[in-house]
Amino acid sequence: MTLRRHHLTPWYFLALPLAMYLVWVLMPIAQSMLFSLTDRSSILFGRRYVGLANFFRLFNDRIFHLALLNNLQWMVAFVLLPIPIGLAIAMFFNQNYPGAKYFKTAFFIPMTLSYAVVGTIWVWIYHPSFGALNTTLRAVGLDQFARQWLGDPRYMTRALILVGIWRQVPYVMILYIAGLKNVPEELVEAAMIDGASWWQRFRSVVLPMLRPATIVAITISIIDSLRAFDIVWVMTNTQARAAEVLATYMYSSSFQFQDYGYGSAIAVVQFFITLGFILFYVNHTLKSEHDL
Amino acid sequence: MKRTGMLVLLLTLVALFAFAGGGRETGTDAQRTLTINSYMSDEAPRQAFAALVADFEARNPDIRVVVNTTAHEQFKTLLPTWLTSRQAPDVVTWFAGYRMQAFADQGLLEPLTAAFPGTSFQDAFPEAFVRASTHNNTIYFVPQSWYWWAVYYNRQVFDRLGLQTPNTWDEFLQVSAALRNAGIEPIAIGARDTWTAGGWFGALNAAMNGIEFHLDLTSGRVPYTDPQMRRVFETFADLNTRGYIMRNATSYSWQEAATLLFNGQAGMYLMGQFIKDVAPENVRDNIDFFRFPSFGRPGYAVETPIDGFMVPRNAQNKEDAMRFMAYLATRESQELFTVPLGRLAANKHVPAPNPDARRGLDMVLGAEGATQFYDRDAPEEMAARGQNALIEAMQNPARIPQILTELDQDRQRIHR
Q1: Do B80 and A258 touch (CB under 8 A)?
Q2: Total-model pTM
Q3: What is chain A's percent helix, strand, coil content, to nearest 5?
Q4: Which residues of A touch B88 (CB under 8 A)?
Q5: What is the mean pLDDT of residues B138-144?
Q6: Secondary-structure class of domain A56-114+154-291 per CATH
Q7: Do A152 and B395 touch (CB under 8 A)?
Q8: Percent of chain B with pLDDT over 70
């Protein structure tokens, strides 16, 4: 009797969150998958199943290919840039010189702004005629580098990614600042006494100790890059054009053009791509928790 | 006890999240609430509409009107979700013709028969508007105002340079060249809002190939790979190659580009009459318009989008919505809205509010036909693709054949 009670207790606590999770997360996902097999207006007027037709259409859809490619650019950039930059800033401020706290706060500020605000600010910075970026370039005599950053299909995506990175760096920085607190000073000192150079100490002592933080930073950055939407939407006046990513294409297909079946198919593809990375992340965190 | 309190708190929070955002406030007294979702976010139409709503409330003290205003482009995205939600607003702003009929066809709109007994609807509006407001002989839409598209220009700039408003395409190119030589951007276009390219698409196609061809195209019967279509794209791209389209056009929103016209940095702007809504008081009289230049075809077409209102099938307060719809059709309410904006009222008993509107009306009456606008005559997805394609053609003219082939693949899919 008591034993059974003991077994049931956690479920009392879990019941509500699990029910909420079921209703608001799992069921919509299942529904999207179902909708991806239906034609355009099935959400409104009864389902008409079309099999995998929506997915076949993805194969020949040049805008879908563009969105995939752009998402890939986001992902590569988000792994290669914010992580080393965030780490460098974290290392720098870990030295506890006067004022470090204020600089840390300053670097953290972009993180506190919503993507919509960040996007609006950067639209002005990128403005070809009077934006801060081109004005600065012209002021230092680099006129030939002044571009129409958000109007030219060649630069759109990368200009947007830069904004994403600007907001991502502080996040990575915080992760590493927390991680650095866990690096025992004795270890570093011991390495110093053994005559290790700064670089050797960093490479062989600090970086391995930061491994968990790095894994988290990489995974979160990948996931963030895959769900890029707000910046693209705000900064292109909802017309993604050359900067299309999966999320914007999913949104415009479903909600602008009411092709819910196709939009769901894009969402399903995005879901599985993201799921792969999430599984990797969860798998890793579970394992490292086990190690402790 | 404590646990119950906790549970109540949790449930309250859940309820708050679940029901927040609806924005439906319940009246504290006997007043009933009428919710209107509007896309009139520019200051001038917003104020004119507020005056209209105040007048309606004064006439109907038992009704309290709540107007939720959403920016135009976002409104277009959100409307389908509102129409399909169970808590739909009572009245929404929208466009006559194909775009309304698509919703009516899906059964998302409430017939307005109750608001217009007998022939009162047909008595108030011209036949063409009645047609654009009905679907299968049922009224779903109350037209309120309409306007025309034309080439707006800065009169001071033209006077200073001694330029005449052009009638033909050649004259248009000459004027553009003269403006460029004077250091003025000849043609303003805020192509960050891609629909501004839609204006060019419709105007060029109708002027070069005729209104029949244009309407065949927007209804999906003509392939985009048609040589006549290619000429349209090449003509537009050529304007840019010649340097007549303002620099960095794709970085400007339509209002930002309009500012260039207002302060004389740009000479001309193909735009709807609503450009006057955003013009500052002191330059409004300096901004005039001329008909889109001719390519030598007899007759011309004008784009005349009709704006108005409809009632969602899932509206909560249909009874008062019907009263509001009946009120919207009246001469008094149409004057309240159109006179301050200098627009044309849909109600045929309202005279043109000013000489400008008189000229606009004459231009429309003299046309061989009127179109609504690319994204109103064609399915929105097709128009969105077409507008993007035209901008791409402008930035990359060498790719035009490829662009049109891709566009036609879209046509074949969208117009099944």
Answers
A1: yes
A2: 0.85
A3: 75, 0, 25
A4: none
A5: 95
A6: mainly alpha
A7: yes
A8: 93
